[in-house]
Structure formats: C-alpha cells, structure tokens
Model the fold of this input.
Amino acid sequence: MSVLDFFLLIAVLSIWLILIVNLILTIAGYTYYLKWSKTPTPQLPENPEDVPFVSILVPAHNEGIVIVKTVQALLNFDYPHDRYEVIVINDNSSDNSAELLAGLQDLYKGRNLEVINTDKTNGGKGKSNALNIALNTRARGSLISIYDADNTPESGALRILVAQLLQNDKTGAVIGKFRTRNKNASLLTRFINVETLSFQWMAQAGRQQLFGLCTIPGTNYVIRRDLLEAIGGWDEKALAEDTEISFQVYRRGYHIRFQPRAVTWEQEPQTLDVWFHQRTRWVKGNIYVILKNAKLLFDPKSVRIRFDLFYFMAVYFLLMTSLILSDTVFVLSVSGVVHSNLQGFSNSVWAFAILLFVLSTFVTVLTEKGEMTFSNLLIILLMYAVYSQMWLAVAVHGMVGYIREQVFHQQAKWYKTKRYK
Done:
C-alpha cells in the first residue's frame, strides 16, 4: 500500500466514523421525538406568586429593519405580563434603532420594556459584552432569557421554557426550537431550513436522549440567574458564547434540557456572502471553545462533556482534514495527475455515504409537519454535493482566520448579519 493509499484509507474511515456517529444520533433523536410527542406540555405554577420573574435580554446592533417586530412578539407572550421584562441593548447602533425603540416605549407604556443605548466607549464589543451590560446593570429577574433581534417567538415559548425549567432544581437552562422564517427566499435558505431541522433532532435531541447533553443556541432559552452569575456571565472573548456557556453549565453539575414545543422563528442569510460571513464566525467561535476547554478531557469532574469535546474536535479537525484529502485525491485522480489503488473503493464508499446522509437527514425532516416533501428530498440530495462542500470552505477559512486573529490579538466585535424586510 502506497503512502497516498494509506492516508486516503484513513480519511475514508474517519469520514465514515463521523457519519456513523451522526446516524446513531439521528436514530436517538427520532426516538426522543417519539417519546416527547406523547408527553404533556409542562405548566406554570397555579399560584401567581410562584411564577418567577424573567428578564428577557435582546442584544441589538443596527437592527432597525427587524427590531420592532421582534419586540412586539416578545411583549405578546402569554406569560403573565407583570412577571417579565424585555430589555433591548441597542449596542452602539448607527441606524434608526434608537428612534424605533423609543417609539415602542411610548406605544407600550405601562409594560416592562427597557432600552439600554450604549456608545463606542462601553459598547460595540460584541454580543457577550452587550448581554453582560444588561445582566449587571438592569436585569431584575431570577431567570434570564435571551432572544436575538431577528426572532419572532410563538406566544407560548417563554411559558413553556420556564415551566420546563421549574420541573427540576438541577436543570440550569432550557432551550427551545428555532425554525427558518424565510425558508422559501432562496435555494440557500432551503438548505438552511433542512440544516436547522437536522441539527435540532440529530445533534440536540440525539445527544439529549443518549447522554443528557445539548448545547445552548444563541436564542430562545432561559437560564437561572444565580448559575449565570456563578459562571461570571458571558465570555466576552467567545464569538460562540452559547457553546461556551453550555460547557460552563455542565461543569457546575447542572443539566440543559431541550423543549421542542417552545418555538421561535428567525431570519437566515439569503445570500452566499452573508451566510459565509456568519458561518465563519461560528467556526471561529467553536474553535475558541474547543481549545479553551480541551484540557477538560483529562478532568474527572468534566466527564459529562467529554463526548461534546470529542465530537467538536472530530468535526472541526478530523473531518475537515479528511474531506480535504479525500476531495483532493478524487480531483487529482479524475484529472489523471495521480493514481490510487483505493480510488474505486473510495468512490463506492463515497456513493454509499451519500445514500446514508440522505436517508438520515430525511428522517429528521419527518419530525416537522409540511416538511416531508419531494422538493426537500431533492434539497437533501443537493446538500451533500453542494452545501457540505460550502461548509468545508467555511471551516478552512474560519480556521485560518482564527489563527490570524490570535497572532494579531484582535478583539471580539459585532459580526453583523444582514437582515431582510
């Protein structure tokens, strides 16, 4: 066996190992879905005095296009109106956000709607900094909830999240489900719609079913304030502050629960440049979290998060390297530049991998009404050939960008995702 064949074999086996892990997670996630669909919706305490006060924090930087609709959705929660507040952190915005938010405060006088307007001296340093400002200076709640500025949650979302949290004192946070509001805007948003469904029922529900693990997303969740303060708030160096705080919750002996009945609808990038910019930020953020917490692999007290650490490392390092090698050998062999004795084997395994990817992803689509369509089957077929390769380019770009930022000690800042009317 040549050196080329050896490395190609390692790459193929690595890709298949991760595919099998994802298949197991998908099956477990679907099992969780079947079990969850038969359970009753959790309820708030009947005594109004036992309903906890919640502070909803909304970090916003130049979000004038979407912020009015978001705030109105938050104020329309069916949670008792005197038991929650909405705090929008208008963080060093240069658009008309301040004027729009002031108008909302006039319109909703008597409601607990507060606005924090920061400037370049104390703001503009990223989502984590904005959230910490609100937590430390304004928030009154014993529970903290986070919503991104482009979200329109369903009316029952907050009530269901809080009710789930109250069921167990060791539940530190509860996350809900997010859906793609603009899924029909472009082919890209069709890809993202399937991706989000797959993520929630594979990565979230599957890990919840098998290991009691899930990761806090950036929106639509509640967390105990005392736990958040014990952690020290959000890490202002972390672009993926949600992944980072998830690890801290587990390290302190708490659980994170996934409650799919709490739904929010969010905008997704409609063009490739916006998507590429957003996903690159995610890659950089997750690499930071992996490297920051890698030492926990050898910490007996952190045994519960080892799977997540191994999984993130496998996806961002092993899978990325294996895909680059496999794709390179495939292109070079087709062009006749190199010859591999394993290329025929590799191609057969690759074709079977596509079939496995399509079947496992389609299973996750079965969990949502109206998503089990022939067009979505075609979208999934395209995802392996197109969208997965796009993600590979993002991963490489994000890795290089992260290294460059560490070398030049660049500070965290707002990475603005374009919004649409």
